[in-house]
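Narrative progress, year one. The postdoctoral researcher (J.K.) led the effort to move from monomer predictions toward full complexes, under supervision of the PI. The following entry was the first complex the group processed end to end, covering 751 residues in total.
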Amino acid sequence: MTPEKQISGLSRARNEEPIQVATMSLTPTSPATAPTALDLEKSDSSNTTEKSNEPRLTIIEPRSSWGFVDVKEIWRYRELLGFLIWRDVKVRYKQTVLGAAWAILQPLATMLVFTLFLGDAVRAKAPGAVPYPLFVFSGMLLWTSFANALTGASHSVVASQQMVTKVYFPRMLIPLGAVGTVVVDLAVGSVMLFLLMLGYALAGYPVSIGWGLLAAPFLVLALGMVATGLGTLLSALTVSYRDFRHVVPFVVQLWLFATPSIFVQEMVMFGPRGQMALRLNPVHGLIVNFRAAVLNQPMDLTALATALLIGLLLLLIGCVYFHRVERDFADII
Amino acid sequence: MRPAIRVENVSKRFRLGVRGSGSYRTLRESLMNLLRRPWGRSARTATDDSSIWALKNVSAEIWSGQVVGLIGRNGAGKSTLLKILSRVTEPTEGRVELRGRVGSLLEVGTGFHLELTGRENIYLNGSILGMSRREIQRRFDDIVAFSELEKFIDTPVKRYSSGMYVRLAFAVAAHLEPEILIIDEVLAVGDASFQNKCIGKTLEVAQSGRTILLVSHQMDVVRRLCGRAILLKQGEVAAAGDTNEVINQYLAEGAGRVLPGVPVETLRITPRGGNLEAVFVQVSCTSLDERTSGHPYTGGPLHVTATVEARRAIRFNSFCLQIFDRQRTRLIAADTIVHQAPPRSLTPGTHQLRAVLPALPLRPGIYVLGVCLAQRPMTVFDNCETVGEIEVLPAPGRDNEPKPYFDGPVACDIQWTD
């Protein structure tokens, strides 16, 4: 710090006369006008950019509790969403030796465990004799991402307490950012999957790639949707009820058991009725289809349709509930 | 022309126990509630006794280009109002119109991440405050220059000293260029020279025609920066208008301090040392000067009246007035022991002790007053170091003088001798 610099800056500030001020009126407290419109804030973004003479108008009012999160606003804040994801990815691998390799190690380790210790009787036999490790890895890759996204999203709002109480931005960005961070990990993991497939192909196994691969990104997106829907709901619930902090890891664990298709033959484990129930699990439908898409096998369209439907429903519920409680976040967090 | 900020009958209700008491609503509680009255209104909308109004029918208009100070004692609703204006929380009733891009600084360094470098945090923090990536890029060099952290810009923030951290954080905030700037007490961070720099920057912003609404407990800062002020009292607007008038009204109300001439009677419970054979029960102080409504001022007298309750007959040779700064550094210990007079005696019962510091050598600011009664060197009867805060004002007629650049609590004249 150079004192001279500061002194000059200060004296400059001091030479000017203390602020010219227009009038300020204090409206006497008139009879309270009841909270009228139950609208969201109407910041007419059209006025801001085109007509620069008229400054952006923001209206702050108590708003109705039922509604949907403001998608347009989230879009306007997309840059901040990018920054939040970038921060999380960056922070996660700072001061770690292995860095982004951790994104691969988790599914890889699970794959090894299942390959080495699961008996042939229950092992899933993929059609077309896809090697079992490949079968497990592709499933686990998606499952780990989903589990991480769900856990991350549900803790996210409480973890961002500092920001929530000090600055405004669409709160929805917080769980969205948590899910987005996991997508980056997934991208890294996909490279590993590709290398594994390449290795098996070179070793002479019947591994092939088909047009179905194009569907894979959309399936990942759909899984992100499920995670966002449920994660949003849980993150909002966690703000009011910290109980959910304990519920989430438990649910994730149970859910893994409810998604056996990742590593075992469903037909052996479950009867036909069990298989029907399995379809209600959107993660099951998406993982089965993701694997089919990547390993060039026939997709299970019924399971896919059910998964998408349930996923959409979850997203809807999550967003509506989140919107309903987000205005109170700063007060109760 | 319409006001940049129009606040209409804004009220805000908090559920007690929701904020501050640290008790979370548990799931069980809510489930039980739901079971008991499944169709009833939820606790949040129900009007029950366990809620308080942090703001009640607050209305104000602030015109474009004004710098307005929001003052009031703790809990008056200042921060709540700022939070509503920055959309962090929602009003329970009422309506606010904001014309222009709003930048709010409720805290310096919101969203800073310790693991990230200074450079990365500038981008992150800028984005959180509402700057676009391109704006940040454009101002990046200015921000770094203002923070004077060129050498450390690629060092993780966790390795910064707290001063460096605050400098970087304020630098980002200072380069936010909104039309309306909302500032909560952030000018009070950092050391004195940094504070001066922040105030200088705020003045600069003010002169460029932005609208600024700021909360501060430092009346000299409000006086310097603001042409207008609003005084909040228990959630309501108690006064609004010319800064000096509003500040005088605020000071006249005492703001939870030792008021001129009004005794502090809570002394029975404040922590103190000594054998308590005689205890202070009331202390009041005044400058007896109407120009400052009795407030002490630089170079003025400070008359102190202390009521002492003696439990038995005692003799004492030391009545000591102590003044501390807010960091609890003792600045003054004016002790009657220096007179080497024979000890005074007190019979059991209450007595009043009166003493004066004829010329208070303190610069304007907030200090803490303490008193001590003792028979030196043997016995301390009562040492009460926290009677309360006193605000020392500038000497009457001298409040427009430029202030020294450096911060130092002791007032001292300087003359040329060449």
